[in-house]
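Sample intake sheet
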Amino acid sequence: MTSSRKSRNTDAVSVILFCKAPVPGRVKTRLAADFAGAVDLYASLLDSVIWRLEADAGIELYLFTDSESIPYFEERYPNLSISEQQGHDLGERMQNAFAHVFSIDDASSVVLAGSDVPDFTAETARQMAELCKESDAVLLPSSDGGYSAICLSRRVLADLHRLFHDIVWSTSLVLETQMRRLVDAGFKAIVMSEAMDDIDVLEDLLAYRKGAKRRPLANADLSFLEHLPRVVAILPVLNEAESLPFILPSLLESIWIDEVICVDNGSTDDSSAIIETNGATLLYCKERGYGAAMLTGIEYASRKAPDTILLFMDADGSDDRTHLGDLLRPILAGRADFVLGARQGGLLLHQRAGNILAVWLIRLLWRHSFADLGPFRAIRLKALQSLKMDDRNFGWTIQMQIRAVQQGLVTMEIPVPSLRRLGGKSKVSGTVRGTVLAGTIILRTVFREWRRRRKGFTSHRR
């Protein structure tokens, strides 16, 4: 560390930023467990936060990192002050960083923040420093019970060793414990009214993206979110006015979903009006057919962003929406291309019989074991496009599964409850005619796909 005193703009706010080089296995390990793009996303976020602070003439920025990351930051940010973090735990490293900056900087207060707080800006630092003129410490809370940044007055310098000692970090009691340390040491502390969160786990990231769309910040750089695929839910709708008021609000509010597309397949009730009232995307498909409606939704979703995950589910409330994350997490983590919700219980006898026969045929003809043909499923758009889906009726679900096996996609089945419909009558299992028709179409699809495969093999041999 440099020990010489630094000349500074007297009106500037001094900011310490704790950071690490974006190296797999060393940063964002909890996020990386559920999101394959975690390191690239962190690298983009890190640049955004640093460049935003560095570009502000009213900020004196100090980067503190581990010894292995110093070469990375010296090369990428040659004009910044870069120091090695010292200490056995986070508290000791924070204490030593404050002590060092106070020793080389004449600032009356210093702000310390993490580099993974997307909304932290120079203006935030100035607000904290201004509040610190009337207090000894200012804390910027996070919604998980911790804090994202802290500003300390020079008045606490002699008692730094008491403020961060023996705090159990990464718990919901961090903010409370830190306040007790400050109060017990005789200092006045202020907690800012608005929370600001960092990005530690997948749910943090998804919640941040959802919130950022609702409350866009001035001059906010959200480019790091481009590393996170969009998730689009597609629901075929045919006279589901009784169930849609219960289904749509929860889907639209879910952190897992970016857009809800409802494809009206010829409803004669108020389904379309309910869809528009709730704010979902409404499409119309005049051609009657389950697959036709799905293909209409896919074509629309594919226009927006190539890096998209599609979630398919029925609009009758029988798919358990509390399991959205179970289907999407393996794809976001890079562990699967296609995830199928295997229904547990709730199926009628003839549905179970049809399922058993269909999956047995797949096992016999394609040597792959599925447990179900359920509608609740998720797949990457690029993977789905590679299947060249063309079934426009009830064979759509089994065609996807068969072609996923043939294409070599990494598939996974997740047990999910099968719930009762929230209203209306099933177009398939609700009548004998519907059940027989759907079963016939599904079996016909199996044998058509088998003939297609055999024809392909024959052509290949020629």
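Comment: Residues 457-462 have pLDDT under 50 and may be disordered. The chain has 16 helices and 14 strands.
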